[in-house]
Specification:
By secondary structure, the chain is mainly alpha-helical. It folds into two domains: 32 residues; 163 residues. The protein has seven helices and no strands.
Length: 200
């Protein structure tokens, strides 16, 4: 067991195997399933939740752990963060954002409410469509911030792209402010997504 848990790859693969076994167990001991729209909708929702947890979890890690504690790290140790940890965090952060939005749009399309949600329920009774639509738009804005503001500025701030020292400082501040903007939007976005499940 120790060998399994010492390797992230083995741990993740074991988790996937356990998930598949649980899924098959629920299938055989339940009413079964068909590879229909409901199945693909479920798979899209499952994917959406997994990548959203990674995205928001990394967003909160950056804002609650890494950014507030950077000033406490001795200067000679900061390169470990900027050269190793931050690039890895930002890789998973930006791709989780993209897959969260993509899987959410697929889910909305499969369930037939994509248009109503994207138009915030205008002309279709508001309620659930408005709530999920607000969540979707907030998620799209947050993903836009990740890919087109935070990531380009972080590349300059971390020295992945050559720039002048003053531009590096300004880029670090811009990336931090937009990361905080996404933190600000994260709770309303999550509320909208969850509340939509209880509205008509």
């Amino acid at each position: 067991m120790g060998n399994l848990l010492q390797s992230l790859s083995k741990t993740v693969h074991a988790s996937i195997v356990l998930t598949i076994l649980l899924f098959l167990g629920l299938h055989f001991f339940g009413d079964g399933f068909a590879f229909d729209r409901i199945f693909w909708s479920w798979l899209a929702r499952f994917t959406h939740v997994i990548v959203a947890i990674m995205w928001v979890g990394l967003l909160w890690y950056l804002n609650f752990v890494q950014i507030p504690n950077m000033s406490k790290i001795p200067d000679d140790q900061k390169p470990a963060i900027s050269k190793v940890i931050a690039p890895a965090v930002l890789f998973y952060f930006r791709w989780a954002a993209a897959i969260t939005v993509l899987s959410g749009l697929i889910l909305a399309w499969l369930n037939g409410y994509a248009h109503q949600a994207m138009t915030l329920g205008i002309g279709s009774g508001y309620g659930k469509n408005t709530a999920i639509g607000v969540g979707m738009w907030l998620g799209i804005i947050m993903a836009y911030n990740v890919w087109f503001v935070i990531w380009p500025n972080q590349k300059r701030a971390l020295g992945m792209v050559e720039c002048q020292p003053e531009e590096k400082t300004a880029s670090a501040r811009t990336a931090m402010l937009f990361s905080r903007t996404n933190t600000l939007l994260s709770l309303p976005m999550l509320l909208s997504m969850v509340a939509a499940q209880n509205l008509y």
